[in-house]
Each structure stands twice: as structure tokens, then as C-alpha cells.
Amino acid sequence: MVKVLAVLYRGGKAAVEEPRLLGALENKLGIADWLKSEGHEFIVTDDKEGPDSVFQKELPTADVLITTPFHPAYLTGDLIRNKAQNLKLAITAGVGSDHVDLNAANEKKITVAEVTGSNVVSVAEHVVMDILALVRNFVPAHEMIERGDWVVADIARNAFDLEGKVIGTLGCGRIGFRVLKRLVAFDPKELIYYDYAALPAAAEKEIGARRVEDLHEFLGQCDVITINAPLHEGTRGLVNKELLSHVKKGAWIVNTARGAICDRIAIKEALESGQINGYAGDVWDVQPAPKDHPWRTMKNPLGGGNGMTPHYSGTTLDAQKRYADGTKDILQRWLTGKEQEPANVIVINGEYATKAYGQRK
Ligand code: NAD
Prior knowledge:
The protein has helices spanning 12-17, 32-37, 54-58, 77-82, 102-107, 120-135, 138-147, 152-156, 174-183, 201-207, 215-221, 241-244, 264-273, 317-335, and strands spanning 3-7, 41-45, 64-67, 89-92, 111-114, 166-170, 190-194, 209-211, 224-227, 251-255, 276-281, 306-308, 345-348, 351-352. The protein is α/β, with parallel strands linked by helices and 361 residues long. The protein has two domains: 3-116 and 315-352, NAD(P)-binding Rossmann-like Domain (Rossmann fold); 119-308, Rossmann fold (3-Layer(aba) Sandwich). Bound molecules: nicotinamide-adenine-dinucleotide.
């Protein structure tokens, strides 16, 4: 018998009415009956902050921890070293395991696995939506209609077509590639990417993308920048005041990767000064975002340019089914001693199994 601890977001009435909200606390990823029938203990909570939280109280006796990026239980180095004595496996129900201190997990030989690919289409679609919402000035237009106003010029003065623009992705893995692929249909001037790993030649050719190896040069060329790299030592705080000074004036930025890749204040100031024309995404430097987080209300000088939402791009109902099934598969393999799907493994036996979390020796 093993003890599995899961930290999931509270779904409330929505989760009771909609059983396909598998990622919610109430629906327990659809694995509660199975785990019980196998004789395992399964604790599920949304209470994740501080030493008195259920998360921290149950952690010392848990063999397996399941978390999600949507309501991240931060498994810090301190918790790994001092509280998670029994922990052998940390599963991310979704994609993106930066809320786990991966270096500390390596020290303690804890395996970290995620359901790679489970929501990459969901996110890529969201990015395309965010890009269009910013470039076409959608949010202020809708707000105007709700207010009962009708002043077309106030919206049109900052509305553009995506056609003919240069669109670039910082990070061109599963999501970045899928974003660019979807944008081909909009006839952009050019699709470019910045990534230390080059796309296979056939993939570059398929979408007509060009790799730019210098980050400043890349930023200076993009009308639209979409961020699709994991959060790690090399990307934390990467988009700061200095880097933003290299961005083409009036560019739009969409970040559905991780909030902490962008500096909170630098983004707000760049938007307010008009250095960037818009910022959208669904990820925040801490989640849930505090009520006074500047990204909730920041605006460009014309009163628009904010397309922020709560973190949900990768948790559509379609995605939830895929990451719930994937979580069960990872768990089942671990319980029966079967090898994990290699693409799902982030760290194992004290080492990084993926090249996506930074360039290492
Ligand atoms: P992936 O591993 O397929 O691709 C990541 C790419 O980023 C890789 O090609 C890697 O080489 C590149 N990269 C890493 N560091 C870089 C750097 N410093 N500069 C440039 N490129 C760099 O991952 P993916 O499936 O495309 O997901 C990417 C990230 O998106 C995840 O790690 C996660 O943080 C985020 N994500 C968000 C949601 C959401 O709901 N908002 C859902 C899924 C994933």
C-alpha cells in the first residue's frame, strides 16, 4: 500500500455539475475509486499554503505527490530536504514542473514526471486567441459594448491585422511549434523563433520558420512575441526592463508559459509607457494571483492592451481528460515497476532526463 497525496484546485458548484472537470478537487482526477480498489491511500486537498496546510502536513508520509500547474503546490527545496522524507515520485497533472525544485528533487533522487503533450494544442489555440485579441484590440471593444457606448474610432485607432506581421516564439518546442503552425494561415510577413534547440529541418520547412540565434535581434524583429519556454534558472526573470528595451516599440507579448519568466513591474511599466502595445496570457508569478497584482488592471496609454485571464489555457475539458488519463498511466507504471514513457520524465535517478529545462553539462 502506498500513500498518494494530490493538490488540486477547488471546483465548487462547477465541479459538482460538470464531472468532466477531472482536474478539480471534487472529481479527484477520476482515479479515487481505482486507487482505493488497489488498497492505496489517496488524500486530495486544495489547501497548499504554509506549514499548517494539509499539503505540508500530509507531505512527510506521502510516497507520491500529484500537483497541477493551475493551482501549484510549491514543492520547494526546503520541503524536499526537510519534510518530504518518503517521497519517491512527483507527478505534474499537466505540463510544466517548475513548481517543483528540480535540483533538490535530483539531490533526493525523487522522480518528477509530467503528462507531456497533454495540453499543448489547448495552449497553442489559446495563444492564437490572445494574439488576435491584442492585435485587433478586442477587449476594450467588448467592454465598450457592455458599457452601452459605441465609438468605433476609439477602438479602430489601435486595431490592426495579423497579416503581414512578424511573429516570433521564444521557445519552440511542442507548444511554440504548434502556435507557429496555426499562424501560417494568417499570412504573416515571417514566422521566427529563438530556442537553443533548433527545430528539425523538415519542421522548419513545413511552417517556413526561421531561427534567430541572438535574443536581442529576435526581439527587435518581432511585432508579436509569444513565450513558450519552461521556467528554469535560465528563463526566470528573463523578460526584464533591460530585455524589454530591445523589443520593437509597440510589440504585443503573449505569455502562456510561466508568469515568472517576465518581471512583474517591468511589464507593467513597458505597457503603460507604450513600449509594448499589449500583454496577454494566463500565467502569473504566483498563483492564485493576489487581488492587487498589477497585471490584473494594467493598460496601455489608450486604455487597452490587457488580455490577462486566470490560468486555464491548458485545462480545457478536452485537456483534463488527457492529463487525468496520463496521470493514471504514470502512477500505474510506477506502481507496477514498469518504465515510464521517456517523454514524460523530467528528472530521474538524480539527473535531468529532458533538455528543455535549460542548457546543462
Ligand atoms: P517543450 O519541452 O516541448 O518545449 C520547450 C522549448 O523551450 C524547448 O524547445 C526548449 O529548448 C526551449 N527553451 C528552454 N529554455 C529556453 C531558453 N532559455 N530560451 C529559448 N528556448 C528555451 O515544452 P512545451 O510542451 O512546449 O511547453 C512549454 C511550457 O509551456 C511548459 O514548460 C509550461 O511552462 C508551459 N505550459 C503552460 C500551460 C498553460 O496552461 N498555460 C500548459 C502547458 C504548458
